[in-house]
Inverse folding.
């Protein structure tokens, strides 16, 4: 039996710039939009594009991801032939290694791909929020008789130096590329989505097998380019968001509360599927108030919520105030707590009368590369004791106690990391 | 588990008026994201009953859609599973199910081929949480031949339920079926439509009834055997509601505005399961004012909503006011609408500017 195209989804990365959010889980498992996890977007795109065979490559803290994907039921990827398969690194006789790079990870799973005898392989990452028809990209790939096609996205010229930039001719053929160029010659950024002819992919991976940390962008694509293989671009023009930093993650969530969001989840067409538990609807109590927000099923709102994204089964107690926040599943915000501009990860408990987001910005003492906005982050399962005050750009991970807050205060830019927590 | 489950879900109810036009009573949407049959199905699954048959007849399509896969209630098993028993034409019979007993008579083979010693029969329109193991344990301990689950209710409340009288040991000695009995104060004991019986015994009773062309489980089998057999009651202490009229449908949905009751059903272990849709979270825009209301996924709220239950993918337009209403899936409320004391059927569009105030004692169904 055979599949025309299978997908390989790279989901092993930590996503270290998401700080506390990826402390306990890989980036693709991070919750998004009050209901989803980031990996739901590429997975749903696969299903909606008719790609029914997906290998998900895991490495960094895979438990959440494994639990979420299970046997693929929510995406109808529980199939007799094909479906979703989790592919962790494995021990071999002799040269065992972790996945050392994107291409190396795929190389270590050649056997998996062989089972399906595919003509094409779609390489995806679990890092982005977007809806894309991979079938249309495949059509383009076939029309161009390409060996490899790279999805690209026009970005504002001033942002181009942050991306891998593709330079193309009039037919979309890639003539050159530059990694994070100071003076970009094009504004077409690589989206990290590739379609390869399987024969090309296999040959390249085998030829480059010895390259340490073999990577698609750094090694495989340049190698094909050097031998003047047929490399084409596929231009994508819709919503595509990298949620790799705390501020882009926060912004992408907040955009969903716009009157008519640019990324619309409420359309019947191209639904995003996820593994959600059964809950009754969100409940706003008589004393509760919710505006400019999205609120997941099972949530109980007795306090006031404004301009925020709330996941499922969140509790906002009477007198509590939530402003400009992303609150994930199962979070409890106790009476009278005031939470501003924060990301609160799963199952955290914010004690009564706690104030988060007080004062003014201060540079992070934990990691200024990660924490560099006004957003305060509370990690999954954390406990914030009643009455304490937490500044901006702060981070808390774990079950903290009053003694962890000298004078009842955690200043802006400061942090507390403790082991354990609720789950 | 020593029992096989049967859920009677074939009925309609004229007192559900327009609501039952397109669905079986057991498929009535409830609490925004559930359907009435989820309760019986989840109770079966949570009690460890591995083999369950759902008897359908009236307007069964809505129910079949909901049951399109048994995995949501954990019945997708190699051993056992969920079976739908629809009326069929056979060389011996071309009848619809002529009653609850006839539905079982026409499926006697199913009962005969099972190996479990007991049968749990439950109606598909009850809203309750019950570990059937408790009923079974009591059934055995009390030496009962048939156990009937019953519930105490204020005499003034509800009607058309079978009213039971017990002796000191809990044996049922009188059973008045569907009587109007609101006169006196105090409490009455009503039949919840959940029975436990030994499988062989049930087969025997059904075969006897078939010979005499008696087709109703309660009227033709249970009530006539009160004297000869030991019918024992099992008292259900927790919440129970039967959806059999517009009034009870409205009341039951309103009951579920109580967070404690929702916790009891939907977050306290073991939870009631349902088929989960892929709707995004409910969206509250800047002008939304929602109070004491449930708002299910996929809904978008612009106006004000008070004391109401909004099912999935409901839209409420600007400046509209929805009070004390139940809006079922996909209802669209235009701008400047005033809606009070109404049930709005699935997919109905309420035009901008509409004003409709229903009688709270006789809730209208807009369809």
């Amino acid at each position: 039996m055979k599949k025309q195209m299978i997908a390989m989804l790279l989901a092993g990365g930590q996503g270290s710039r998401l700080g506390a959010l990826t402390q306990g889980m890989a980036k693709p498992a991070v919750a998004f939009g009050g209901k989803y996890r980031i990996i739901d977007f590429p997975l749903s795109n696969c299903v909606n594009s008719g790609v029914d065979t997906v290998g998900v490559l895991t490495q960094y803290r895979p438990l959440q991801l494994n639990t979420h994907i299970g046997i693929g039921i929510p995406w109808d990827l529980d199939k007799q032939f094909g479906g979703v398969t989790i592919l962790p690194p494995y021990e071999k006789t002799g040269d065992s290694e972790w996945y050392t790079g994107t291409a190396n990870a795929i190389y270590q799973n050649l056997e998996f791909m062989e089972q399906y005898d595919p003509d094409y392989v779609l390489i995806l990452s679990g890092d982005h929020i977007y809806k894309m028809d991979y079938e249309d990209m495949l059509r383009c790939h076939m029309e161009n008789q390409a060996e490899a096609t790279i999805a690209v996205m026009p970005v504002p010229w001033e942002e181009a130096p942050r991306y891998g930039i593709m330079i193309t001719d009039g037919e979309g053929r890639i003539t050159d590329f530059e990694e994070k160029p100071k003076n970009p010659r094009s504004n077409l950024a690589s989206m990290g989505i590739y379609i390869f002819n399987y024969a090309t992919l296999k040959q390249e991976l085998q030829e480059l097998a010895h390259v340490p940390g073999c990577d698609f962008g750094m090694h495989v694509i340049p190698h094909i380019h050097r031998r003047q293989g047929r490399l084409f671009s596929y231009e994508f023009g819709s919503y595509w968001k990298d949620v790799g930093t705390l501020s882009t993650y926060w912004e992408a969530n907040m955009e969903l509360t716009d009157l008519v969001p640019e990324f619309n989840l409420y359309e019947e067409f191209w639904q995003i599927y996820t593994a959600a538990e059964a809950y009754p609807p969100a409940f706003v109590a008589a004393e509760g108030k919710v505006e400019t927000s999205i609120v997941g099923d099972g949530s109980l709102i007795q306090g006031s919520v404004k301009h925020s994204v709330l996941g499922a089964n969140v509790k906002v107690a009477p007198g509590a105030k939530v402003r400009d926040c992303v609150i994930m599943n199962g979070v409890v915000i106790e009476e009278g707590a005031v939470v501003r501009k924060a990301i609160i990860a799963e199952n955290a408990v914010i004690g009564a009368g706690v104030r988060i987001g007080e004062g003014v910005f201060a540079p992070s003492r934990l990691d200024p590369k990660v924490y560099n906005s006004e957003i305060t982050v509370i990690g999954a399962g954390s406990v914030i004791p009643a009455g304490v005050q937490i500044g901006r750009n702060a981070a808390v991970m774990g079950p903290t106690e009053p003694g962890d807050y000298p004078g009842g205060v955690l200043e802006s830019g400061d942090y507390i990391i403790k082991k354990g927590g609720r789950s | 588990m020593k029992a096989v489950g049967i859920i009677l879900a074939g009925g309609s109810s004229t007192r559900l008026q327009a609501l039952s036009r397109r669905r079986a009573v057991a498929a009535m949407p409830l609490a925004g994201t559930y359907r009435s049959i989820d309760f019986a199905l989840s109770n079966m699954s949570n009690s460890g009953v591995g083999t369950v048959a759902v008897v359908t007849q009236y307007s069964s399509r809505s129910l079949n859609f909901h049951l399109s896969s048994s995995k949501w209630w954990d019945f997708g098993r190699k051993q056992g599973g969920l079976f739908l028993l629809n009326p069929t034409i056979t060389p011996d019979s071309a009848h619809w199910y002529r009653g609850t007993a006839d539905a079982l008579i026409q499926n006697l083979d199913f009962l005969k081929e099972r190996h479990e010693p007991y049968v749990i029969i439950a109606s598909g329109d009850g809203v309750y949480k019950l570990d059937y193991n408790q009923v079974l344990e009591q059934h055995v301990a009390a030496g009962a031949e048939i156990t009937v689950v019953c519930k105490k209710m204020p005499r003034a409340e509800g009607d058309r339920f079978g009213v039971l009288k017990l002796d000191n040991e809990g044996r049922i000695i009188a059973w008045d079926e569907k009587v109007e009995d609101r006169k006196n104060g105090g409490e009455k004991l009503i039949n919840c439509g959940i029975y436990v019986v030994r499988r062989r015994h049930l087969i025997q009773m059904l075969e006897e009834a078939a010979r005499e062309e008696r087709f109703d489980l309660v009227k033709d089998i249970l009530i006539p055997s009160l004297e000869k057999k030991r019918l024992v009651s099992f008292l259900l202490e927790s919440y129970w509601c039967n959806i059999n009229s517009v009034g009870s449908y409205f009341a039951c949905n309103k009951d579920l505005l109580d967070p404690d009751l929702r916790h009891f059903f939907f977050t306290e272990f073991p939870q009631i399961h349902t088929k989960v849709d892929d709707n995004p979270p409910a969206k509250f825009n800047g002008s939304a004012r929602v109070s004491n209301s449930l708002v299910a996924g996929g809904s978008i709220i612009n106006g004000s909503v008070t004391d109401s239950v909004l099912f999935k993918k409901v839209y409420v337009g600007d400046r509209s006011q929805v009070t004390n209403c139940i809006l079922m899936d996909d209802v669209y409320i235009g701008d400047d609408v005033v809606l009070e004391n109404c049930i709005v059927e699935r997919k109905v569009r309420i035009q901008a500017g509409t004003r409709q105030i229903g009688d709270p004692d006789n809730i209208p169904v807009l369809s």
Observations:
- The CA atoms of residues 234 and 361 of chain A lie 41 Å apart.
- The helical segments of chain A are 40-48, 63-69, 102-107, 110-114, 134-143, 198-207, 216-226, 246-255.
- Chain A has a mean pLDDT of 96.
- The two ends of chain A are 42 Å apart (CA to CA).
